[in-house]
Amino acid sequence: MNRSASFTQAYDFSALFAPDVMLAVQLQSPPKLPCEPEHRLMFAVLEHAIEDIQKHARWRSTQAPNAPAGRSRYQEAADWITSADTDWLFSFENICAQLGLDADWIRNGLRQGGWLHDD
């Protein structure tokens, strides 16, 4: 038996010619950052609140000397994110709606990450 014949028998070349499988969602372009000034402002407000939640979650129940400032920033952001208010243009619910984001999904993600607490 020659070498080339033994190589082709040992290697399955059919995998090279199998079609690639892609989901429709993989063909869509990635989400774009907001480009309108109002949407950029809304995105910045949302980003700032999420950063405050993540940075200051540790201060919510501590007695450290600098805890009051951190606790205050955490509580303000947590109150805003957990509010169901839609009367104010820059409420969490309205910002998420304008940016095409699911407000409950964001809340749940912050809860599951251990940053947002309902107490």
Task: Outline the structure in words.
This protein is mostly helical and 119 residues long. The longest helix is centred in the middle third of the chain and has 20 residues. Helices cover 55% and strands 0% of the residues. The radius of gyration is 25 Å and the shape is globular. The relative contact order is 0.11. The mean pLDDT is 77. It has a domain of 77 residues.
Short description:
With 119 residues, this protein is mostly helical. The chain has six helices and no strands. Helix 3 (37-56) packs across helix 4 and helix 3 crosses helix 5 (92-99).
Structural class: mainly alpha
Mean pLDDT: 77
Q: Biggest sheet, open or closed, and with what strands and sense? A: none
| Ends apart, CA distance between termini | 76 Å
Number of strands: 0
Q: Helicity range of the residues?
A: 55-70%
- C-alpha geometry: globular
